[in-house]
Specification:
By secondary structure, the protein is an alpha/beta fold. The chain has one domain: Aldolase class I (TIM Barrel, Alpha-Beta Barrel). Helices cover about 50% and strands about 15% of the residues. It has an eight-stranded parallel beta barrel, surrounded by seven helices. Helix 4 crosses helix 5 and helix 8 runs parallel beside helix 9. It is globular and about 75 Å long. The site of erythose-4-phosphate has 11 residues, from helix 7. The site of erythose-4-phosphate (E4P) has 11 residues, from helix 7.
Length: about 210
Amino acid sequence: MEIFIDTAKVEEIENAMKWGILDGVTTNPTKIAETGKKFLEVVKEICEIVDGPISVEVVNLNAEQMIEEAKRLSNLHKNIVVKIPLISEGIKAVKVLSKEGIKTNVTLNFSPVQAFLAAKVNATYISPFVGRLDDVGWNGMELVKQIKTIYQNYNYKTKIIVAAVRNPLHVLDAALTGADVCTMTFEIMEKLFKHPLTDKGLEMFLKDWQKVPK
Ligand code: E4P
């Protein structure tokens, strides 16, 4: 499973890169706003440090305008993946963009039939927001399992990005379900390394090492 970082903060991306486990980046207008920087400035900075898919979202809501915006964004760098919201105009736009070889990430996916539509128009990625479903009392991972089944039934090539991840258990479930990608914040990525028994065991080994005659 590929690991993407869900942030637009360059310092977080640089730190995650150092661990050697990072495959790509996902952003959205909220994450760009959190940086306090200009949109193009942030996107260019990210493209300079990560050699992997970088999702950047359109803000137009009409298919023609989305297509135009998507083309502009994808021209910025070869690694740009254009995020398109899962609305009818978005699906219309993805159909055109797929034919033109522009990579897309269909975002704000909350139902399996929505994900089915994204696959029908050959979206590169679909992003089910598992944590946001859990937040309102639905089972986010159940959605991912259903998408996986639909895509396998018809051999759709659209890749599943498990998004809006809230904890390491979501990452585990994403991997067990066979998701292609899991995108997560820097904080969650950091938590993946941790286990109290690792810390305890290490402390004990280092203590015992002091007893070894040198
Ligand atoms: C995915 O691409 C989105 O950026 C993201 O996962 C949104 O998650 P949130 O619910 O934590 O904002």
